[in-house]
């Protein structure tokens, strides 16, 4: 099946207001910027986003966040995104913060058809006990807090029950992909992109290099095409547009 779609706008044409999205990327690495820009152009809003972070340096999900298009974020890291922090503290944005490894496993579990799993991460904290601020009231008070989760003991160790995550759509970026949707990710872009792709009911991948079926060694495939419904081939300019979050030098 040829899953290639001509343009990013066409690929996201059926994403409605209020949709939930799993979005790949780690910092500025592997972020599906072209698909995010297409959503911005369409004017889609009220989105529920699941992603490690919510964009940085006015790129990635920060484009939608700054435009007020995101209603809820499930993630692990606010970092230096001042607008993310401002909206959260002002009560404009609902935020569920999750330990990073738990977020990764919740996405993977959802994609694998596993409804829930137990993990020791967060036991004895508000992650398990509840009370984490999901939404502030704008005056410093908590308008909505996380509920307590089930904790169970196995072999003398306590574990907290975490739910798998499924979303309406997933947006990911791959270094290479074929027309059947088989994808290859480069280095740290492999952190969250395959997991986000698994979690989406409809997964859209932008690829830096599109090859014909058979052009990827089966042993090199990081994500099989069964998880991908649409593929958008980037132009050379789009593929080369990669930002650096923090430049460092050594002497």
TrEMBL record:
Keyword Transferase tagged: yes
GO terms for MF: transferase activity
InterPro entries with a match to the protein in the record: 3-oxoacid_CoA-transf_A, CoA_trans_fam_I, CoA_transf_BS, NagB/RpiA_transferase-like
Pfam families according to UniProt: CoA_trans (PF01144)
Highest taxon of the lineage: Bacteria
Keywords from the UniProt entry: Transferase
Transmembrane segments: none
Record flagged with keyword Transferase: yes
Family note: Belongs to the 3-oxoacid CoA-transferase subunit A family.
Alphabetized PANTHER family for the sequence: ACETATE COA-TRANSFERASE SUBUNIT ALPHA, KETOACID-COENZYME A TRANSFERASE
Name used for this protein in its record: CoA transferase subunit A
């Amino acid at each position: 099946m040829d899953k290639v779609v001509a343009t990013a706008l066409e690929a996201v044409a059926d994403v409605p207001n209020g949709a939930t999205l799993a979005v790949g990327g780690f910092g500025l690495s592997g972020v599906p910027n072209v698909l995010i820009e297409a959503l911005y152009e369409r004017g889609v809003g009220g989105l529920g986003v699941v992603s490690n972070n919510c964009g940085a340096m006015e790129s990635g999900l920060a484009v939608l966040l700054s435009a007020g298009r995101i209603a809820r974020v499930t993630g692990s890291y606010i970092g230096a995104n001042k607008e993310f922090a401002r909206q959260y503290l002002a009560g404009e944005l609902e935020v569920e913060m999750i330990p990073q490894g738990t977020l990764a496993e919740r996405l993977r579990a959802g994609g694998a058809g596993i409804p829930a799993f137990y993990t020791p991460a967060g036991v004895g904290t508000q992650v398990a006990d509840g009370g984490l601020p999901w939404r502030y009231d704008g005056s410093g008070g908590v308008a909505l807090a996380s509920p307590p989760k089930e904790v169970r003991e196995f072999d003398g160790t306590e574990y907290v029950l975490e739910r798998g995550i499924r979303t309406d759509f997933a947006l990911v970026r791959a270094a290479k992909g074929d027309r059947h949707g088989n994808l290859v990710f480069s280095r740290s872009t492999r952190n969250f992109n395959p997991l986000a792709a698994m979690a989406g009911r409809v997964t859209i991948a932008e690829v830096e290099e599109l090859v014909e079926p058979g052009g990827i060694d089966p042993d090199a495939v990081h994500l099989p095409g069964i998880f991908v419904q649409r593929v958008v081939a980037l132009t050379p300019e789009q593929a080369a547009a990669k930002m650096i979050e923090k430049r460092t030098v050594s002497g």
